Here is the input.
Amino acid sequence: MNAPQKNKIITLAGGGLVGSLLALVLAKKGYQVEVFESRPDLRKVDISAGKSINLALANRGIKPLKDLGLMNDIEKMLIPMRGRMVHIDGQQANLQAYGQQAHEVIYSISRGELNGYLMTQAELTGKVNFHFEHRVADVDFSQNQLNLVHQGENINHHFQQLMGTDGANSPVRKAILKQNSHLVQYQNEEQLLDHSYKELVIKADKNGKHKLDKNALHIWPRGNFMIIALPNLDGSFTVTLFLPAKGLSAGLHQNDMSFSHLLNNEQLNKFFDEYFSELKPLIYNLEDDFFTNPIGRLATIKCTPWSFADKALILGDAAHAIVPFHGQGMNCGFEDCDLINQLLPKASELNSDFNWQQFFQTIEQQRKVNSDAIADMAIENYIEMRSSVMQKDYLLKKQCAFKIQQWFPKRFSPRYAMVMFEHRPYKEAFELGEIHKKLLAKLCETIDDAQQLTKEVAIKLLDKYQL
Ligand SMILES: Cc1cc2nc3c(=O)[nH]c(=O)nc-3n(C[C@H](O)[C@H](O)[C@H](O)COP(=O)(O)OP(=O)(O)OC[C@H]3O[C@@H](n4cnc5c(N)ncnc54)[C@H](O)[C@@H]3O)c2cc1C
Here is the structure.
């Protein structure tokens, strides 16, 4: 099992979305890549049931895919979503556009299809080996050795450089942090969200068509909880209920509802009848799917350092798992790969004195401030999605922000647009967004309709806030 001690071999733990893209990036740079993935090959076995079947791909994630020349293929897997379609029972569904220009859309894509495609592209380079059903149990840094479990047997793999793309529960992260726990700047925060999720499905109609507008991300906001639905190419929608894991009381009030109050068909039906009566008839096999599909937990991970000596670095969710409410976890992980693509020399140009330790530290330096920022924005966005989208004040601020952007695009871009459609660092988007909040709050003290906003007032505010 031990890889021969040749130069320029990089070992990856985890062949998920980030691991597969990273393998391809490294292979194109001339490195030999060995990927150890705990699950079977998802191109041969369906392992997706009930676990984030589709996701939103946006500009940050698209950039490295484009740079690698993959977008012609990937475009066929995409469904553009131009805004949030907000569903409130008894009212006409209302589309809140994400942006003002045609290109300001995000894309629904199947996790399994994208992951499988990236694996295949990586393999086609002839430089990447995926070792499926190889679970990393631990890392022995004294021997530069991965301890793996394969078909019940313990085996070892010697590595030169290790990159941990093994997701939110990363054993590589745990091993790195263990080595570094004496450091002053050490951080190991895992914040479990007290809301969990469950996936359901709306099947295509009898003609194979979508039963709802397919070019939108649908939301049924209900204050303390919500349902969202993203379109799939086969005419179905993946539907996700986000709800507190545990409630405080008997769950009689909307704010107390939780997964712990949905334990049988009667409770489940009552819940859907009360809060999602228009959606309920569209959901396929509600009772069976609800009680069969797993409840997913959500967490934010902030840690440092991301690396150990010149031996190992973590990336993607392993370094910075975030809650999914800004649709940025994968996009942020793909940005990590983009930075590796930009900064790592080609294998053929790598000198024997290349300083891996410094390289790993540079990656963390550039990425951590930004992944921390998107982690915070993702938490904020949950409240926006499940509650604010229904409020007049929120809509007024959004309309005003669009107007200011139209008049002064160089001075003002709404935070959502900065995160989803631009490449400016997340930290900068976060900081500018804080200033925008103050500006919009000030503005909305004096107007109650976006029509009342004049260019003169907008200029004064932009000057006041030095934008
Ligand atoms: C409900 C939900 C919705 C989401 N929606 C979006 C969205 O719309 N847009 C977006 O950008 N992001 C979204 N995300 C986030 C996105 O799924 C993650 O950020 C992304 O999957 C991270 O990729 P990764 O490769 O770092 O980790 P993972 O995708 O978790 O991949 C890790 C891989 O490592 C493997 N692995 C784990 N442990 C081991 C081990 N011990 N040994 C070997 N292999 C191991 C796993 O099997 C897996 O293949 C969503 C997440 C959830 C939960």
Observations:
- The first strand starts at residue 9 and ends at 13.
- The chain has 14 helices and 20 strands.
